[in-house]
Specification:
single chain, alpha/beta, 6-stranded antiparallel sheet
C-alpha cells in the first residue's frame, strides 16, 4: 500500500507549487516509508509515498507510460488480486511489461481500456492517472471502498489525497467545519455519511466510483458497479460449496507478497478461517505462518459476559495456535498506553474515531509491523453473512433507523442549543437513513423479511463497514502495515446479497452458512463459537483514565469542544449513571468519554474553525 495525493488546476500554472506538494507528501509519509516521488507539470502535480510489497526494485511511482502519442502518469495505492489474468489480457492487446508490479499492469490497462479498466480489476485501490496530452485527470476507487480517496474542489483547482491530512497540508485549504461537519461529528460519528469529508469543502470519492476532471466539464463522477438483486437458484449445499470456493480463492489471491505476510487471529470465526486457509497454503510451500493477537492487561480478571461478548478470546486463540501449528505473537496492552494512544489515533484518522477500539488497533499494528509488512484481517464477514446482533434480533431489525446507533436524541442532548436547533431542522440522520433504503436494490415478490435483510445489508455495507474500513486503513497505514480484507472481495458481496436469509442463519446460528461452508478448516469449538466482537479492555481503570483526560481538557475555559457541546452535558456523562451505547456494541460510557476527549484534541491539533 501507499499514499497518494496531488492537484490539478486549469486556471493557474503549478510550477510554483513544488513546496506545497512536498508538504502534502510529508503529511502522508507514514503510509509509504520506502520511496517517494513527485511529478510536476504546468497544470498537474502528482505525489506518491511507497510501501514496497511487490517488486520492490521495479515499482517506483509516479509511474509513466507512453502509448503512441499519448503519455499517462499514475499514482496508485492498493493491490490487484487478478494481476496475472489482467496482464495476460493486456499482452493480447500488444502490451509488454518491464516490472512485476500491479502498478504497471493498472497503468497499461488504463491506457488500453480507459475508464473501463476499473471494471476489470479485482482488488482494493485508489488511484489517479494524468493524461498529459489531453490534460485530464482520472480518479478511481475500489468497489467496496477499502482504500480511501478524498478531494477538495474549488473553481481554481482540485486537490486530492489518500488522507484528509494530505489535502489539509495545502495552504489554500481552510481547516473549517460548518453545520454539516458538526452533524457528522455529533450525530453520525465515528461514522461518516458516504462521500462526506467533514471539513468544509472536503469530500470523498464514494466506493465503486470513478471520475474525470477536465477544464471543460469540471469533475464528472460515475458509479461503475452496484449490487444487483437477482434470484438465487442454488440449494443450501450448493450455496455452501460456492461460498467455500469464493472465500478460499479470495484468501489465496491475497497471500501474494514479496515481503513477510501474516494474519490477524482473534480466535473468532472470521480471522480463524483466514488463518487456517493461509496456514495450509504456507505449509504446502514449506513456510510457517505468523499470526497475531491482542489482549489487555488484567482482562481475564475483569471480563464480564454480556449479550454482545459472551466469552473472551485467549482460550480460543490458543486452540487455533495448536490446531494450525503457526508461530503466534501476542500484544498485551495496558490502560496507560491505551489512553495515551487516543491522540495518535486522531492523527491517524484525521477525525475523532472509535476511541480505545482505534487506539488499541493502532498499537497492535505497530507491534505486528515489527514482524511482517502485510497482514490479512477478517473485516466485513459480519456485514455480508449477517453476524451482528442487529441482523438476528427481530425487534432491533424492525426498528426504524441505523441499528448500531439508535441514540440520536441522546447525541443531540450534547449539542449547544443554537446548534441543536439547526441540526433538528436539517434532519440529517433521518434523511440519510431513508436515502440508503431508497438505493437498495430489491426484487419484486420477495417476502418482507428478505426485503428487510437486503436493506440491512445495504445499510451495513454503506455505513458500519465503511467505519471499520476507515479504522483499519488509517491505524494500519500509520504504522506502514498493509492490511488486506479477503471477505471484502466484491464477488463474495454480490453473491451473498442474493443468498436467502434462512441460509445465512442456517441451524439457528449467526453466520450459519459460513460455518457450514468452512467445515474441516477449524476445530468444532471455534467453528461453532458464538460471535465475539473486536476485543476491548474491561479494566475499570480505563474509565478512570479517560475521565481524568476529559476533566483535564474541560478545566480550560477555552476548551475547543465547548464551542460544540454543553459543559453540563459532558459533566452528566462523566458523573451520571446513564449509559447509552454511542456506536455499535463496543462504544459505551468509557468509549463515549474517550470520543469527546478525541474531539477536543482534534479541534485543537487541527486548528479547526467553525463557520456556519
Amino acid at each position: 500500500m501507499c499514499g497518494i495525493a496531488g492537484m490539478v488546476s486549469f486556471t493557474q500554472t503549478l510550477y510554483e507549487e513544488g513546496e506545497s506538494l512536498a508538504r502534502m507528501q510529508a503529511a502522508i509519509a507514514r503510509r509509504g516509508p520506502d520511496q517517494k516521488g513527485i511529478l510536476l507539470t504546468e497544470h498537474a502535480g502528482l505525489v506518491h509515498t511507497r510501501l514496497s510489497v511487490i517488486d520492490p526494485a521495479g515499482g517506483r511511482q509516479p509511474m509513466q507510460y507512453t502509448d503512441g502519442t499519448q503519455t499517462y502518469t499514475i499514482v496508485y495505492n492498493g493491490e490487484l488480486y487478478n494481476t496475472s489474468e489482467l496482464r495476460q489480457t493486456l499482452r493480447g492487446h500488444g502490451c509488454t511489461f518491464d516490472t512485476h508490479t500491479d502498478t504497471e499492469v493498472l497503468l497499461k490497462a488504463y491506457a488500453v481500456f480507459g475508464a473501463e479498466c476499473v471494471s476489470l480489476c479485482n482488488g482494493i485501490f485508489a488511484f489517479a492517472v494524468w493524461e498529459h496530452e489531453r490534460e485530464r485527470l482520472f480518479l478511481a476507487r475500489d468497489r467496496m471502498g477499502v482504500k480511501p480517496l478524498f478531494y477538495h474542489l474549488t473553481p481554481e483547482r482540485l486537490i486530492f489525497g489518500s488522507e484528509l491530512k494530505a489535502i489539509l497540508a495545502h495552504p489554500s485549504v481552510p481547516h473549517e467545519i460548518g453545520i454539516e461537519g458538526i452533524s457528522q461529528l455529533l450525530l453520525f460519528g465515528p461514522g461518516r455519511t458516504p462521500g462526506c469529508g467533514v471539513f468544509r469543502g472536503m469530500a470523498e470519492l464514494p466506493a465503486a466510483h470513478c471520475a474525470y476532471y477536465t477544464a471543460q466539464d469540471g469533475l464528472q463522477m460515475q458509479c461503475y458497479w452496484e449490487l444487483q438483486a437477482q434470484e438465487h437458484r442454488e440449494n443450501f449445499t450448493q450455496t455452501a460449496e460456492h461460498v467455500r470456493e469464493l472465500l478460499t480463492d479470495a484468501i489465496r489471491r491475497q497471500l501474494v507478497s514479496d515481503v513477510p505476510l501474516g494474519t490477524f487471529l482473534s480466535g473468532g470465526l472470521d480471522s480463524s478461517i483466514i488463518s487456517s486457509v493461509a496456514a495450509r497454503e504456507f505449509s504446502a510451500q514449506g513456510r510457517e505462518l505468523h499470526t497475531f493477537s491482542v489482549d489487555y492487561r488484567d482482562n481475564d480478571k475483569y471480563f464480564q459476559k454480556s449479550k454482545f461478548q459472551p466469552n473472551s478470546d485467549p482460550a480460543y486463540i490458543r486452540k487455533m495456535q495448536e490446531y494450525l501449528h503457526v508461530t503466534h505473537h501476542w500484544t498485551v496492552l495496558d490502560t496507560a498506553a491505551l489512553a495515551d494512544a487516543l491522540f495518535a489515533a486522531v492523527e491517524a484518522r484525521d477525525l475523532p474515531g472509535m476511541a480505545d477500539v482505534d487506539a488499541s488497533l493502532l498499537l497492535f499494528c505497530g507491534d505486528i509491523r515489527q514482524t511482517v509488512t502485510v497482514a490479512l484481517s477478517g473485516e466485513c464477514a459480519d456485514e455480508l453473512f449477517g453476524g451482528y446482533p442487529w441482523y438476528r434480533d427481530p425487534e432491533i431489525r424492525a426498528a426504524y433507523g441505523f441499528p448500531w446507533s439508535q441514540s440520536t436524541a441522546y447525541r443531540m442532548s450534547f449539542a449547544k442549543p443554537e446548534l441543536a436547533k439547526l441540526l433538528e431542522e436539517r434532519g440529517d440522520v433521518d434523511n440519510a437513513y431513508r436515502a440508503t433504503l431508497a438505493r437498495t436494490a430489491l426484487r419484486t415478490g420477495e417476502s418482507p423479511t428478505e426485503q428487510r435483510m437486503r436493506e440491512m445489508m445495504r445499510l451495513n455495507l454503506d455505513w458500519f463497514m465503511q467505519t471499520l474500513l476507515d479504522r483499519k486503513d488509517r491505524m494500519s497505514m500509520y504504522n506502514a502495515l498493509e492490511v488486506r480484507v479477503p471477505f471484502c472481495d466484491y464477488r463474495i458481496a454480490q453473491y451473498l446479497y442474493n443468498v436467502p436469509w434462512e441460509f445465512k442463519e442456517h441451524g439457528g446460528y449467526e453466520k450459519g452458512l459460513l460455518r457450514e461452508a468452512m467445515r474441516g478448516y477449524l476445530p468444532d469449538e471455534v467453528l461453532w463459537r458464538k460471535k465475539s466482537p473486536y476485543p476491548k479492555t474491561h479494566n475499570p481503570n480505563y474509565l478512570t483514565a479517560v475521565t481524568a483526560l476529559l476533566e483535564e481538557r474541560l478545566a480550560r475555559p477555552d476548551a475547543p469542544i465547548l464551542q460544540l457541546v454543553e459543559r453540563e452535558a459532558l459533566e452528566r456523562l462523566l458523573y451520571g449513571e446513564e449509559s447509552v451505547q454511542w456506536y455499535g456494541q463496543l462504544m459505551t460510557k468509557p468509549q463515549t468519554i474517550a470520543y469527546f476527549v478525541q474531539m477536543d484534541y482534534w479541534m485543537e491539533h487541527y486548528g479547526v474553525k467553525i463557520r456556519l
